[in-house]
Design goal:
Blueprint (H helix, E strand, L loop, with lengths): L1 H22 L17 H4 L8 H7 L1 H8 L3 H5 L48 H4 L8 H9 L61 H4 L2 E3 L14 E3 L44 H5 L15 H4 L67 H4 L4 H4 L45 E2 L2 E5 L3 H4 L39 H4 L19 H4 L7 E2 L2 E5 L21 H4 L37
Antiparallel strand pairs: 1-2, 3-4, 5-6
Helix pairs in contact: 3-4
Length: 584
């Protein structure tokens, strides 16, 4: 009984399959192979009716959603008779897609809602309709279930769904803003669409000057495969300040706003739109001080058609100014001048100590112009034309700094040549002498000749006078009478003829009786050393004037020719009785 039932069931199944084979117009294509048999006919064929769209979409749910949303090729069809393009029962190997007489390559892709143009028109179907590029989740689920199945569904129109993002996420997903389907290369990117519009010289700069290349880190098996391992950096790039790309040649002295002086047209062309240009200059390497603050810009940065702002030398004054001393004073100008003005000079007398000729004594009180007078040679050095420049016509260079004649006239008129002035004079005063009359002349000064004291010497001119009023030192006579009046009127020029002359007698002139200690102090004695008329007895106590009578001026006292007899001076009290009164 049990066997009979089993057999009956088996026979009914065989009969079913046989009847299905008898009723079926042919074997189903391999994708529909699971629908073979009478039990599955109604999954595609409605009873008493032809094939219907609804049953197809009940199975192909991934298409139903697209048809309902009118997306893709199937959603755009007005005639949705599925079997016209997808017939079946033509054998297991039958391709269930009929593209028309031109085949798959002749398919009008515009019908899908995604027209192929540019480089896309040349791409093979398989390159895009690759199961690895399917983006739709429902289609991916279908492909996972039917791994060997082929589909044209599930692709996205987004570039990134088929192409590797060569920018590595820097620029987002809107590829069309820069690229077209004609070529991947950008013919001319409109930088004005970016946050940094190019202007001036920036327009001519090569892209890679700002957008440098970097090497990607994607695995070798990355799909879609990148065109290049390297990529250009576009974001994030700093451009809020010029120093983001350019090195600041001013090292921050002018702040970060380069546009105050520069624009993108040309770096060398500078515009100063600051209302206070002087204040701007204070941030440069050369702040304007003193008179420089009132100088017109063109005076230093011109005058030319295109002002020069960079490369203006300022390490020395003569970079801009003519050397006022025309090389007479080598070195920097700062020791003598400052920016308040060329005159007056800031050179102090103390600074003269650092020169070859320090100021000492009376020189320290001398006015500068007394030594540094105007010189004709300096006057001739003035430029005949050009800018109005200060040029000194003072003399600063001397052939010999230690030669007094460079500044002073020789009051001796070469009388003492070749002796130098410093052998007798000092810088404290011309009247203070270092000359030693005792050691350095043939006439030592003694006694009253030295003066009343060291503080009150006799003026040199008292002895060293000349007819033209100047002081003369050569040929000055040395005899007393040459300087002093002979109060004896020549009486004592020679010794008495009857006096035997010894060494004292040989000293003719004043020095026989007088020395330089004083005229009134005399060495004369009334004894044979000096005279033949010796004084003895009461004569020794008689005042000189008792015998040597004084006469009225200008007549001198009489020393020669006086009587030697008693009668010459005395009255004879004996009235001649002694007869010897007249005898010597």
């Amino acid at each position: 009984m049990k066997w009979t039932a089993t057999f009956a069931i088996a026979m009914s199944l065989v009969a079913g399959e046989a009847s299905a084979q008898l009723l079926s117009p042919g074997k189903l294509a391999r994708p529909h192979a699971d629908l073979e048999g009478l039990r599955s006919c109604t999954k595609c064929h409605e009873a008493g009716s032809k094939l219907g769209e609804k049953l197809c979409l009940d199975c192909h749910t991934e298409l139903r959603a697209r048809v309902e949303q009118k997306r893709g090729y199937h959603g755009r069809l007005e005639d949705r008779t599925c079997h016209k393009c997808h017939p079946d029962h033509r054998g297991e190997d039958f391709e269930m897609v009929i593209f028309g007489p031109r085949g798959e390559k002749g398919f009008d892709h515009r019908l899908s809602g995604y027209a192929l143009d540019g480089a896309h028109a040349k791409v093979s179907c398989e390159e895009c309709h690759d199961s690895r590029l399917v983006a739709a989740a429902d289609v991916r689920a279908l492909m996972k279930k039917h791994r060997k199945a082929k589909t044209y569904l599930g692709l996205s129109a987004d570039c990134s769904s088929c192409h590797f993002d060569e920018h590595r996420g820097q620029l987002g997903q809107d590829c069309k803003s820069c690229h077209s389907t004609r070529t991947f290369q950008i013919e001319r990117f409109d930088h004005g669409l970016s946050r940094y519009e190019l202007s001036g010289a920036h327009v001519k700069v090569a892209c890679d000057k700002c957008h440098e290349a970097k090497t990607g880190t994607e695995p070798a098996a990355t799909f879609p495969k990148p065109k290049s391992l390297s990529f250009v950096t576009y974001k994030p790039l700093e451009f809020d300040r010029c120093t983001s790309c350019h090195q600041d040649p001013h090292t921050g002295r002018f702040g970060a706003d380069c546009s105050r002086c520069h624009d993108t047209t040309n770096w060398s062309r500078t515009r100063l739109d600051s209302p206070d240009k002087v204040a701007f200059h204070d941030r440069t390497r050369y702040p304007l001080v003193g008179l420089h603050r009132s100088v017109a810009c063109e005076s230093c940065h011109g005058p030319k058609r295109a002002p020069k702002w960079k490369g203006v030398a300022f390490d020395r004054c003569d970079r801009c100014h003519l050397d006022a001393h025309r090389g007479e004073l080598p070195g920097d100008c700062e020791p003598c001048h400052d920016l308040r003005g060329f005159v007056p000079s800031t050179f102090e007398r103390e600074a003269h100590d650092d020169t070859p000729y320090p100021l000492r004594g009376g020189h320290a009180a001398a006015a500068c112009a007394a030594c540094h007078a105007k010189a004709e040679s300096a006057e001739l050095m003035k430029p005949p034309k050009g800018r109005a420049l200060l040029v000194s016509n003072r003399r600063f260079r001397f052939d010999r700094e230690d030669d007094c004649s460079s500044c002073h006239a020789d009051p001796h008129q070469q009388e003492l040549a070749p002796k130098a002035c410093t052998e007798c004079h000092v810088v404290d005063s011309f009247t203070i002498l270092s000359f030693d009359h005792d050691a350095e002349s043939s006439y030592p000064l003694t006694g009253k000749h030295r003066g009343l004291s060291e503080a009150q010497p006799i003026p040199c001119g008292r002895c060293h006078a000349s007819a033209d009023g100047r002081v003369s030192y050569r040929g000055t006579p040395k005899e007393c009478r040459d300087c002093h009046t002979d109060v004896h009127a020549g009486q004592l020029d020679a010794p008495p003829s009857d006096l035997e002359c010894d060494e004292n007698c040989a000293r003719l002139g004043c020095s026989r009786c007088h020395d330089t200690n004083g005229f009134k102090t005399t060495a004369f004695r009334h004894d044979p050393e000096f005279t033949t008329y010796s004084l003895d007895g009461s004569h020794a106590t008689v005042d000189c004037g008792g015998c040597h009578l004084k006469r009225e001026t200008p007549h001198p006292t009489i020393y020669r020719g006086l009587p030697r007899t008693c009668a010459g001076c005395h009255v004879d009290p004996h009235d001649g009785r002694m007869r010897r009164f007249e005898q010597p």
